[in-house]
Specification:
This is Phage shock protein B. The protein is built from 3 helices and 2 strands. It is mainly α. The chain folds into 2 domains: about 1-40, no CATH class; about 45-85. The longest helix has about 30 residues, at about 45-75. The mean pLDDT is about 80.
Length: about 90
């Protein structure tokens, strides 16, 4: 192997490694700063909207669970459900 072949091979290996690292960082949510260090990506407006929607849906589920449980308690079904859970 000549000197120039070795240099080309080293440059190729470094380039492929940088490319693979860059793709991996992008897939897990990291970007790079001006010096090439990985930094956490900022949330976009779409992600923020989706987080707010999930929080709202969780609140709705809590309310529905409370309504369903209160109705069952009034009808005496809460005790029956607890008995079924114990089995």
């Amino acid at each position: 192997m000549s000197l120039w072949s070795a240099i080309v091979l080293i440059v190729l290996i470094v380039s492929v490694t940088q490319f693979m690292r860059s793709r991996h960082n992008a897939s897990v949510g990291f970007a790079t700063d001006d010096e090439g260090r990985p930094v956490a990506r900022r949330d976009t407006a779409e992600e923020e909207r989706l987080r707010a929607e999930v929080a709202e849906l969780k609140d709705r589920v809590k309310v529905l669970e409370r309504i369903a449980y209160d109705e069952r308690q009034k009808l005496g079904l809460a005790d029956e459900i607890e008995l079924l859970r114990d089995k």
